[in-house]
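forwarding from the other thread:

> can someone predict this with magnesium ion?

sure thing
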Amino acid sequence: MADYSRDCPEIVTQVPSAQKERYKSLRNLFIERFGSEPAFFTRAPGRVNLIGEHIDYCGYSVLPMAIQQDILIAAGPNSDQMLVFKNTNPEYRDFTSNIGDFKIDPTNPLWHNYILCGFRGIVEAECVSVPSGMNLLVDGTIPPSAGLSSSSALVCCGSLVTMHINGLEIPKRKLADICMRCEHYIGTQGGGMDQSICFLAETGTAKWIQFNPIRATNVSLPPGVAFVISNSCVELQKAATSHFNIRVVECRLATQVLAKSKGLDWKQFKVLAKLQEALAVSLEEMLDNVENVLHPEPYSKKEICEILGVSEEELNKESLSQNTLEVTSFKLHDRAKHVFGEANRVMKFKEICDQAPSDAAIQLGELMSDSHTSCRDLYQCSCEHLDQLVELCRLSGSLGSRLTGAGWGGCAVSMVPSEIVDDFISKVQAGYYAANPKLQCRVKESLFATEPGNGANIFEMT
Ligand code: ADP
Ligand code: NG1
Ligand code: MG
């Protein structure tokens, strides 16, 4: 039984004074759209992952921090057993459903589905037999489909609303545990990084997040550096494509082929970290196993079936997801090599932050840049524009730059000496955004310095 009692900052709090105007205008808009006062607000931040990409779903720890951009929901109950979701951004159309009738549609993941994931997660986990109807007005500032976790902020915010409106009190670590599984309803088979940092973040500190069970440890970043986010503005909606799940499946198949080669019951193993635990060896030894057992060329589905001794139907059932059934070729060597290497880099990053040697920032920057190289070459989750942007960030004075989040577009994060942040931003603006009017008009929300922000909260207006 997990112990959720520790590490849980207060969840219900007052609106910070700097934010009061935003909450007031959302309240006024809620009254305009629903004809009644909102009862409360929930807020969930986006995040930037500093290091540890595509390894949370393999069971390995990651090192993100929350950012200031967020999803904010003004909420009130309704007595008609209706779910009514509206958005301040007209691109996101109104959604209305009877509580008993809603469906989460992985084939057409429109925005309201993410809130429904949070709703369903709480209702099922807490066995709420007659959930309250909800009127919600959503306001978001996280650039969508950019690797800053707008989707999970929406899921987590939706779960908080559902909890509070139904009079439940759930500790933050349990909320993270519930929510890390609910985005699977929409099809993406991610790990728990986004939901864990969303709930467990605290102002002023990055977090080292471990899984099984979820734990969040403060990490002190070196003094004299800032983290700058730059969005390539290439968008990839994760739930609408199979890019993400193909990587999850490749890691699962690598786990199973390695397990089989060690004489283990391969069906018992779904994630690389569990295999490492069973073999009781170091990450370096797992890297040796990759070199000795897996070949660098892609595996056909037929070859994997032969190695594991199963039919294609059985492999589909055991190891693939709905949207990867048609994939016929899988890269196991390179994906597993990335995962073990990246897991190692997270441990080193954490160690350097703890020991704080005089050249800490330089060492951390190198780890970040190595992480990008591995994502680009072994995991193949970058894209041309993002690689160009990362390169430009390095040439503009960063100590280290890398893609952040799932990739295939989206954002880069750079560690930059504090005294050159303004100069760095001007150079990146000139080199990436200025030449293209479509990018230039988005530069304000696409290129900015950030600091570790607070986790999700419920706010009551006073
Ligand atoms: P990421 O999590 O990296 O931002 P995803 O592809 O996982 O990207 O999720 C993006 C989706 O989240 C969008 O397509 C949209 O459906 C939803 N979303 C993001 N921001 C908002 C918002 N402000 N309002 C409504 N839906 C949003
Ligand atoms: P983004 O980019 O926020 O969708 C996804 C996964 C994370 C993690 C990263 C890659 C979800 C909800 N999020 O994040 O769990 O695997 O990619 O490190 O699936
Ligand atoms: Mg997402």
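The two ends are 38 Å apart (CA to CA). thats all i got for now
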